[in-house]
Design a protein that fits this description.
The structure is a single chain. By secondary structure, the chain is mainly β. It has a single domain (2-24, 46-351), classed as Porin (Beta Barrel). It contains 6 helices and 16 strands. It has helices at 2-21, 39-43, 59-62, 262-272, 294-299, 346-351, and strands at residues 74-81, 87-97, 101-118, 124-143, 148-161, 164-179, 184-198, 210-218, 224-230, 249-250, 257-258, 274-283, 286-293, 311-319, 322-329, 338-345. The strands form 2 sheets. A 14-stranded antiparallel beta barrel has the order 1-2-3-4-5-6-7-8-9-12-13-14-15-16. Strands 10-11 form a two-stranded antiparallel ribbon. Strand 15 and strand 16 form a beta hairpin. The longest helix has 20 residues, at 2-21. The radius of gyration is 22 Å and the shape is globular.
């Protein structure tokens, strides 16, 4: 009960801090915290998903309320073929304790390679590296016959760019509802509530805070599950005012920009908050994943070509207590990274 009280107290503190940390606009620090935690996560739109699946340990990194006893000794490793010489990934391990609950221990890293350094006259100064790192401790507990669950991630963050160093702390708080008979899952997530302890150059920046609501349900007579994820719920206006927007309608006689109608603005903001995803399990050992994010497609569109920006997809292969996932997420037209994740349950593997 002491642990439960601590969680409830921490959640109240999170809500108190909400008004101070939920402003929009400006720059954000530690944006690597928003990167997908697994190939399955990337294939499902890179937003928080709510699905009770004890075989995929990586889901607990982004949604700690999914943690439960059946996930104990779950292990997942994620690596990404990222841009240039950049490399990033995750690793996590889950352990259940009878009296305390279920804990998740995770490590996240993003390294950006080696760079040459020069002074103002062009003289070489050697080379330097850059990277971001985060250590997670997650906790989850179920209530009322596993119908409700609460979870929390505590994140210690370190960042180093040449001679510039920064550290910080963040909390994720999640609450989930699960209906076993209908295989329905619903989760509310408050993500990256925190602050910097040390700034890069004396300027304190905001963390990539977000509020997300995820719903999923498996069809009763089809081997498929759909997801609906709402994100950036702390703000309505998702638009970006660009005075040089090539997509803006212009009055031919005056040259003035014609503003969008109220109906079009409303629809654009509404769909900018929604991500749709689908998982299909055609056979026991294979799963297919796909998602569409309207906000990504709208914000990253180009004047000459739209392509498949906003679309993500992937594949899962499940055999002998191993789950191997592959995913791609088209955030732009230039390059699309490849995500690879392998997960297993150590106890189930050894017992088998």
């Amino acid at each position: 009960m002491d642990i439960i009280k601590r969680i409830l107290c921490a959640s109240v503190i999170c809500l108190i801090c909400f008004n101070a940390l939920s402003q929009t606009g400006g720059t954000k620090v530690y944006t690597f915290l928003d990167m997908p935690v697994s190939a399955r996560h990337a294939a499902l739109g890179s937003r928080m998903v709510s699905v009770r699946d004890h075989s995929d340990a990586s889901l607990a990194i982004l949604n700690p309320s999914l943690l439960h006893a059946e996930m104990s000794t779950g292990l997942a490793v994620n690596c990404v073929d990222y841009f240039g010489h950049s490399v990033y990934g995750h690793a996590n391990y889950i352990q259940h304790f009878k009296k305390a609950g279920t804990f998740n221990f995770a490590f996240q890293y993003a390294t950006y390679g080696k760079f040459d350094s020069y002074d103002e006259t062009g003289e070489p100064l050697g080379s330097f590296t850059a990277g971001d790192y985060a250590v997670y401790i997650g906790y989850g507990r179920e209530f009322i016959d596993s119908t409700f669950a609460l979870g929390m991630n505590l994140k210690t963050i370190f960042s180093n760019y040449a001679n510039y160093f920064s550290s910080g702390f963040a909390i994720d708080f999640a609450a989930s509802y699960y209906c076993c008979s209908k295989d329905i899952s619903l989760t509310l997530l408050l993500k990256n509530i925190g602050t910097q302890f040390n700034t890069y150059d004396g300027i304190r920046e905001k963390l990539p805070f977000d509020i997300q609501l995820a719903f999923s349900q498996k069809f009763q007579h089809l081997p498929a599950r759909y997801h609906i994820i709402l994100h950036h719920l702390y703000t309505w206006n998702m638009g970006y005012v660009d005075p040089n927007d090539p997509f803006a309608a212009v009055d031919a006689s005056t040259g003035a920009v014609i503003e969008k109608g109220k109906g079009k603005k409303f629809a654009n903001n509404l769909f900018s908050h929604i991500t749709f995803a689908l998982e299909i399990m055609p056979v026991k050992y294979v799963s297919l994943h796909a998602a569409f994010d309207y906000n990504t497609r709208y914000q990253m569109r180009t004047y000459t070509k739209k392509g498949v920006v906003g679309l993500s997809y992937g594949l899962g292969v499940h055999f002998y207590h191993f789950n191997i996932y592959y995913g791609r997420n088209h955030n732009n037209l230039v390059s699309t990274p490849n995500y690879f994740t392998i997960s297993t349950n150590i106890n189930e593997f050894l017992n088998k």
